[in-house]
Write a structure and sequence with these properties.
The chain is of the alpha/beta class and 234 residues long. It has helices at residues 2-35, 42-47, 143-146, 164-171, 201-233; strands at residues 40-41, 58-65, 71-73, 83-93, 96-106, 124-132, 158-159, 175-181. A five-stranded mixed beta barrel has the order 2-4-5-8-6. Helix 1 packs antiparallel against helix 5 (201-233).
Length: 234
């Protein structure tokens, strides 16, 4: 009975890991299909703002930077180096503004508050990218570290994390979504963003371990209940 319960449990866990892997493969295929769609231009975005719910959709937007609201998210490594992710709101028209995750700059070795200059042209600019959910959050040392805003750092644009709704309220501009810029690095910002992968390898590995454990239980059962007593009797 113990063997039956153990084998049934481990087989079920293995099958569950296989199903999780297939789900992630399907999700990855959907993301790749979304990225393969033609990029939406500014007119299409202004016509229907709900497109910002379509994550990974390519866009080609034209607007002007609100450089006074540029922020730098610290502790964001890229290719093994510590640095900042630069974000700047981009105004498409009088009532539509998006937050653009523009790229990455390295951190100063001696003083983290010394920021490398970022070229932010005035007037109309063109930005290519894809709709994103926003930068991931990093671990903070309590609630105060999560609110490293201009008010708490003496007008410093450096902060640890940024939430779209809270940032919109802070700067007094309604941000309809986030765009991950994918243009070339001609402006000095690095954009070697991590590639989106399915991440199914670990599920295949876990499934193999569970199925192997089920096989081991069966082998042990037959050895101790059948083979060993038979050899002992002989």
């Amino acid at each position: 009975m113990a063997t039956l319960v153990g084998v049934a449990l481990t087989v079920c866990l293995g099958v569950w890991q296989l199903s999780r892997g297939h789900e992630k493969e399907a999700l990855h295929a959907a993301i790749m299909a979304q990225q393969a769609q033609p990029a939406l231009d500014t007119a299409a975005v202004l016509k229907d703002r709900s497109v910002f719910a379509q994550l990974h959709q390519g866009v080609s937007l034209e607007g002007r930077w609100l450089s006074q609201h540029t922020v730098y998210l610290e502790n964001r490594p890229m290719q093994g180096r510590s640095g900042f992710i630069v974000l700047t709101p981009m105004q498409l028209d009088g009532g539509t503004t998006v937050l653009v995750q523009r790229g990455w700059i390295p951190r100063h070795q001696q003083d983290r508050t010394l920021l490398a200059p970022v070229d932010t042209p005035q007037g109309q600019v063109q930005v290519s990218g894809r709709i994103a959910s926003g930068p991931s959050e990093v671990m903070g040392l309590g609630e105060t570290s999560l609110k490293t805003t201009a008010q708490t750092t003496g007008q410093s644009p450096i902060r640890q994390n940024l939430k779209l709704v809270e940032f919109s309220n802070e700067i007094g501009v309604s941000l309809v979504g986030t765009v991950l810029q994918t243009d070339s690095d001609a402006d000095g910002l690095q954009r070697n963003w991590p590639q989106i992968t399915a991440g199914v390898e670990k599920h295949w590995g876990y499934a193999f371990q569970w199925f192997a454990l089920a096989a081991v239980q069966l082998l042990l059962y037959f050895w101790y209940q059948w083979i060993k007593p038979y050899r002992h009797a002989r």
